[in-house]
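User: For a benchmark we're assembling, each entry needs the component sequences followed by a predicted structure for the full assembly. Here are entry 17's components. Please fill in the structure.
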Amino acid sequence: MEKFTLALPSSSPPLEVIRSTICGVVSSGNLEILVESNPKSDVCTLVVNTSAHGFREIWEAVLHDFALRHPAGGLGFTINDAGATPAVVSLRLDQAFEICCGEAK
Amino acid sequence: MTTADTSVGRWNKLAISRAERLARAKRLTSGRIVSADKIVELLEAVIESGDRVCIEGNNQKQADFLARSLVKTNPDRLRDLHLVQSVLALPEHIDLIERGQVSRIDFSFSGPQAARLARLVESKKITIGAIHTYLELFARYFVDLTPRVALIAAQAADREGNLYTGPNTEDTPAIVEATAFKGGIVIAQVNEIVDKLPRVDIPADWVNFVVQAPTPNYIEPLFTRDPAQISEIQVLMGMIAIKGLYAEYGIKRLNHGIGFDTAAIELLLPTYAAELGLKGKICTHWALNPHPTLIPAIEAGFVESVHCFGSEVGMERYTAARPDIFFVGGDGTMRSNRAFSQAAGHYACDLFIGSTLQIDLQANSSTATKGRIAGFGGAPNMGADARGRRHASPAWLRAGKEGRGNIEMPRGQKLVVQIVETFREHMHPTFVERLDAWELAATANMELPPVMIYGEDMTHIITEEGIANLLLCTTPQEREQAIRGVAGYTPVGMARDKRMVENLRDRGIIRRPEDMGIRKRDATRDLLAARSIKDLVHASGGLYEPPKQFRNW
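Assistant: Structure for entry 17:
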């Protein structure tokens, strides 16, 4: 197991979309993402638990792009990964965001 | 004054040789029917060392009994054979090389035997003439690689030797025509001998011997993709293909590869494409094997016509029951023909789309990997611009305009598309600086690195990141960045010039799902018209009978 946490600057979504503490969970096969709110509205926190070693650089690139792509400030993501490809991680993050906050910009 | 020179042995050596061979076989049979226990002797009687031999090995149907029998012949009597056949699929094909009976091969595909073949090439036990496309090998049957002896497979024979191939006609007509009309000998293994055939696929006077095999010929279910294994990334890429390409260009005539990526597209036609109002506007005419995953689209009325290279195990009753869609004989069963369908895919289709293992920065694409000599079968003909094409269609003209710019002479181009996830299993990147094909060519001493689709033919690449339209790139640098720009988090993708990629996106050369109005939230398996093999059986009204290994109920 490898575990790390990133806190990335990201613009905030309209406040009304974060209605509850837990916005949602998306999961299937090899990936589970839990979305919660966090107190800092200009920071997106991402906790990664992954079964695969040695892909930190790719994880960071995927997560940086996600925080840039969406106004995800004030949201916290917990990602439990059992070997999903970067494509799956990106897609599930986008889906989790769309479920919580409506369509992407 | 001249007279026709008919002197024996000057102009009819082939006929004399054939007569001698047939004379040697006289003691084994009085007519065309040979009993199975005499077959090894028959092969030793009619084949000579140094002969070019085709052991019908198709994509699917295999002359397996005749292959097993050839392995039982005396290696001192039969050696230096030159195999000329589409597919080296059976272990016996390779056993013949190991036994020293085959010294040279010309073929198209060796999927299951690719690793053994590579070892034999490295140890110099075999010389490969070339790894052809199917159509290319058939072409050479009629020029310089004509078989002297063809060992073929059919479903049934009558007592005169007429053959019924059933839905899996595949390569048989091309092989038999070349062999029978150029002094060769044709031996057919059949599953049964009957009084009257449902239809005649090969006439008796092209066939020299028929043997009833102790077991039915082997057929590989190569085109069955279980919808249960289609991923959401494949759903997303399928949506991108349908909305960003098929709808955009109005693709009516096409050919699909055999992977899960294109199976996903087939299963999105009755759902996603129908919702977009595309029924009747895309995917009406196909050169395609009878893919079980096409059943829901056919049942939804999306499809008007499908011509098949071969058949598919379990699809026999379904294809027979849909004669308006498939090519079906007077007897009510489908007829396939690999040579004609390959020609159809090359000349009569506006688009080819398929998967691959590696794509380089010039967009060359290959499935070749080190330690495996596999070949590409028909993909290079499907995935190449047909430069001899002289009929227009809107899709073809638009692609030509995009690719050739403002040239004076109007000319179209085929759309050749690779659809790939940026990483394959075990985090192998699909996008690479240099194809493994180079290394394989060096170790196997090949004149050409085995490239499936050349970059100059490739028009679009689809990944989970979107579409790269290579037609619109004006410089090699733009092309490279367009490829990097959809290469995701692979090293090739991470090394992109971000500003240039954004510029390409502004110009529509790279299009992201959001640029096409595709909501990623919708990319779920719920969008597939069938999510299991059982769903396909239901969609077919019970006509599709999946092979055992695909049943889990």
